[in-house]
């Protein structure tokens, strides 16, 4: 092994210690990628035009400007108000959606026209209506989505919510509750985090009665937002000391609100919720405890009951006497990091290049991290926000290179001649874990071997999840598994059809690629040989299935804050809705890797 750069030992050790409206397009402007209609991306603005737009805007503000909601414009508040439906507007939108299946042709056409023009995010409602719809209605819904996609209204809603403040929020708690009632709280997990904060910032003590009433709303999203805001105010779900009769998810939302505002009392509640029967509640409770105390005691919501009990005991001992200590506000989701960027590893004849985009699909020029990644050959990217770095690596067919960069693009370490076909991860103390074949090797910064593990099945994908916890995909065995620092298996899900490229989303769910199941008959020429699955944290439920038409491989995937999923294949990069439809083409060249931050 030949070390090319082992530069700046101090830098790598520091990193290892942790750092924390546009007009609608022509409906005919549609192209087919992987057999699915998707709207065509307009030409990017020139660099001169982009330079003229430079201003002291934050990341989400810049994206708002890109999609026609300029935060510096005089009419910003009025423009953003159009994103929030009132009760009459919601009723009208639902009626128009129903009319898409009306027996009267004129009513169907009129409904299509009006739905295309609504200046509020209804894309998710349209997609939901497509389930179990007639062929005619499904085609109309797809046509409306093709027209509306350029408006990126759910993106605008997300970023406007993130930037909302006490003196600038254009919405009211009533409008947020109405809007939230249209979203599924699990599918739109990241969006819900931003709407919760927005609701907390526009609420006042006089809203308490409305919020307490919302705890019994039929919408899960509304119940959680109301509980969150009460917690943000320091009110424990309608009563200072009463939580009996409340479900664990509402108790969690209240504790989440307390932690987001930095109020005391959340940690003991979160500790109790580690024993919840609800895996989602356990997952978020454990994640918040790690954020609050900036330590990881090994709890995983999907582990066996025995392992969870042991880890909960560690947390109990650690928290004992600390629950009333003040701590900084702790929030979940991308919005808590304040970064909004998509890094795309694009294959080309020179070995690949990384490009940077906003989460709404506009190319970002002069992104230092993307430029740094482009300077090394890699087909895998693993971002570690706890340690503050990204590890990129390539298999033997791509020069066997491994490099580590800070999140700002500073190269911390690089080596060649390192077989890392499955992936690599930077460990605390400046050590590197490298996976290839059946082995995981740990080396120091000078390339010296420190230890190794041998796994019983070939490793096709390897990544570090948290301190002392690694995820491996064993394609031939049909297994996704997690191992500790000694190489002992601590969790697995089996019986999958050749899984690969698996990773955990921030909400604990797993995205993985599997082979499409053969039906025993000759497949259509446009059928896909691979599909993307989203699994529950324990791997027992399939929550989402995306099957791009006419592709052989799915190289990568990533979740956008608007609830859609980016899927990279040998044909390009496309954006899919939660119900599996491609609505936008980002790139039309082979994709190696993806990451959204």
Describe the structure.
The protein has 597 residues and is α+β, with helices and mostly antiparallel strands. The chain folds into two domains: 171-331, Leucine-rich Repeat Variant; 334-596, Methylamine Dehydrogenase, Chain H (7 Propeller). 31% of the residues lie in helices and 23% in strands. A five-stranded antiparallel β-sheet has the order 1-9-8-7-6, with helices on both faces. A hairpin with a 3-residue loop joins strand 10 and strand 11. Helix 7 runs antiparallel to helix 8 and helix 14 packs antiparallel against helix 15.
Feature tags:
four-stranded antiparallel sheet, Methylamine Dehydrogenase, Chain H, single chain, five-stranded antiparallel sheet, alpha+beta, 597 residues, 18 helices, Leucine-rich Repeat Variant, disordered N terminus
Topology overview:
Elements lengths: L1 E4 L3 H8 L13 E4 L2 E4 L7 H6 L6 H8 L9 H6 L5 H13 L5 H13 L5 H8 L4 H14 L4 H11 L9 H8 L8 H14 L5 H7 L5 H13 L15 H14 L4 H8 L5 H15 L11 H15 L22 E5 L6 E5 L10 H7 L5 E5 L4 E5 L7 E6 L4 E6 L6 E5 L3 E6 L2 E5 L5 E6 L6 E6 L2 E6 L4 E5 L5 E5 L6 E5 L5 E6 L14 E6 L6 E5 L7 E6 L5 E5 L3 E4 L5 E6 L3 E6 L1
Antiparallel strand pairs: 1-9, 2-3, 4-5, 4-26, 6-7, 7-8, 8-9, 10-11, 11-12, 12-13, 14-15, 15-16, 16-17, 18-19, 19-20, 20-21, 22-23, 23-24, 24-25
Helix pairs in contact: 3-9, 5-6, 6-8, 7-8, 9-11, 10-11, 11-13, 12-13, 13-14, 14-15, 14-16, 15-16
């Amino acid at each position: 092994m030949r070390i090319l750069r082992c530069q700046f030992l101090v830098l790598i050790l520091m990193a290892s210690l942790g750092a924390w409206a546009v007009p609608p397009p022509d409906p005919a402007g549609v192209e087919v990628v992987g057999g699915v209609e998707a709207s065509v991306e307009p030409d990017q603005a020139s660099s001169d035009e982009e330079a003229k737009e430079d201003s002291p805007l934050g990341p989400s503000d810049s994206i708002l400007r890109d999609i026609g909601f300029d935060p510096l414009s005089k009419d910003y508040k009025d423009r953003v108000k159009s994103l929030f439906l009132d009760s009459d507007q919601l009723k009208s939108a639902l009626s128009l959606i129903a009319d898409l299946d009306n027996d009267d042709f004129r009513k169907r056409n009129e409904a299509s026209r009006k739905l295309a023009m609504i200046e509020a995010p209804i894309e998710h409602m349209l997609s939901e209506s497509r389930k179990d719809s007639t062929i005619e209605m499904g085609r109309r819904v797809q046509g409306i989505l093709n027209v509306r996609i350029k408006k990126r209204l759910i993106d605008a809603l997300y970023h406007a919510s993130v930037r909302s403040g006490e003196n600038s929020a254009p919405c009211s708690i009533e409008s947020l509750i109405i809007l939230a009632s249209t979203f599924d709280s699990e599918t739109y997990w990241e969006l819900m985090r931003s709407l919760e904060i927005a609701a907390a910032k526009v609420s006042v003590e006089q809203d308490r009665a409305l919020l307490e009433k919302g705890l019994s709303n039929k919408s899960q999203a509304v119940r959680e937002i109301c509980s969150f805001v009460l917690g943000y105010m320091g009110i424990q779900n309608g009563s200072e000391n009463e939580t009996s009769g409340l479900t664990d998810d509402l108790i969690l939302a209240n504790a989440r609100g307390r932690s987001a505002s930095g109020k005391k009392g959340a940690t003991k509640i979160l500790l109790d919720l580690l024993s919840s029967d609800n895996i989602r509640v356990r997952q978020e409770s454990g994640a918040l405890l790690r954020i609050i105390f900036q330590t990881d005691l090994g709890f995983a919501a999907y582990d066996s009951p025995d392992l969870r009990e042991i880890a909960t005991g560690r947390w109990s001992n650690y928290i004992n006497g600390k629950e009333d200590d003040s701590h900084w506000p702790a929030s979940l989701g991308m919005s808590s990091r304040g970064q909004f960027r998509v890094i795309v590893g694009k294959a080309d004849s020179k070995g690949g290049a990384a490009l940077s985009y906003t989460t709404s699909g506009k190319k970002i020029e002069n992104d230092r991290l993307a430029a740094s990644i482009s300077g090394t050959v890699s087909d895998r990217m693993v971002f570690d926000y706890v340690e503050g770095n990204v590890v990129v690596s390539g298999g033997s067919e791509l020069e066997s290179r491994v490099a580590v960069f800070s999140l700002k693009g500073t190269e911390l370490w690089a080596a060649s001649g390192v077989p890392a076909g499955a992936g690599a991860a930077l460990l605390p103390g400046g050590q590197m874990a490298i996976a290839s074949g059946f082995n995981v090797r740990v080396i120091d910064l000078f390339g010296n071997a420190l230890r190794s593990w041998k796994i019983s099945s070939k490793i096709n994908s390897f990544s570090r999840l948290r301190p002392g916890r690694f995820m491996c995909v064993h394609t031939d065995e049909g297994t996704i598994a997690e191992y500790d620092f000694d190489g002992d298996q601590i969790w697995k899900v089996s019986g999958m059809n050749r899984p690969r490229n698996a990773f955990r989303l921030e909400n604990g769910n797993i995205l993985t690629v599997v082979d499409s199941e053969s039906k025993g008959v000759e497949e259509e020429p446009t059928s896909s040989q691979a599909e993307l699955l989203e699994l529950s944290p324990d791997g027992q439920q399939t929550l989402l299935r995306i099957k791009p038409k006419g592709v052989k491989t799915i190289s990568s995937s990533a979740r956008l804050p608007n609830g859609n999923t980016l899927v990279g294949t040998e044909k390009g990069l496309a954006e899919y809705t939660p119900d599996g439809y491609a609505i936008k083409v980002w790139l039309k060249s082979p994709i190696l890797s993806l990451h959204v931050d």
